[in-house]
Amino acid sequence: MHMLSESDVLRVDECCKLILAIITIRAVISAPQKTTFGSVLNFTAATSRQLFAFARDDGFPFRNWIAKVDARGGSSQNALRVCCAFVILVTLIVLGSTVALQAIISLGTLALAFTYELSILCLIWRRLCGAPLPPYAWSLGRFGLPINILGSIYGFWLMFFSVIPPSYPVTAANFNWSPVMFAGVLGFTTVYYVLVARKVYKGPVVVCQPYGS
What we know:
Layout: H1 6-56, H2 63-66, H3 77-92, H4 98-129, H5 144-163, H6 178-200, H7 204-212
GO molecular function, one term: transmembrane transporter activity
Subcellular location: Membrane
Transmembrane segments: 78-97, 103-125, 145-164, 176-195
């Protein structure tokens, strides 16, 4: 029987370490990809539910088709299709311009922070004016107003850094177009609400009130 020499043993040991290192590197590299993939599935499913609920309350164009519930699955497949198509179209933008994709990502951050800011400012206004708050199951008590103010400051900070250009000097190539897109979307939704939505949209509070009373 041929016995392995000390040099052969060292080579085998080095090969094993190299294989283990490659496997570890691949696992580390693929972990964020798997996490991102899972997050996209969760976000798409959650967004489709929100889109369905908004369309069901007559607050979205083509609401009857989007809010249609599939009899077999018991869910709104049309809302899911709309979200998936939107995600695919947005990701295809990177093929033409990375600046446009970054602007859309910044637009999502800006819009999310804006919705939080509106809610927090409404709470601050009602607390300062002494107006009654809606029914709630849990309260921060006297710490509510300071926490709301801190949250509002953070929201403005987040909105500010989501609209500034990524580099200087500012040119058309590196300009952050998210505030322009945000103003366009806000203008479109305002016009749609004035012309159409305000005549049919009642909101979940009004719709669900008879069932909770």
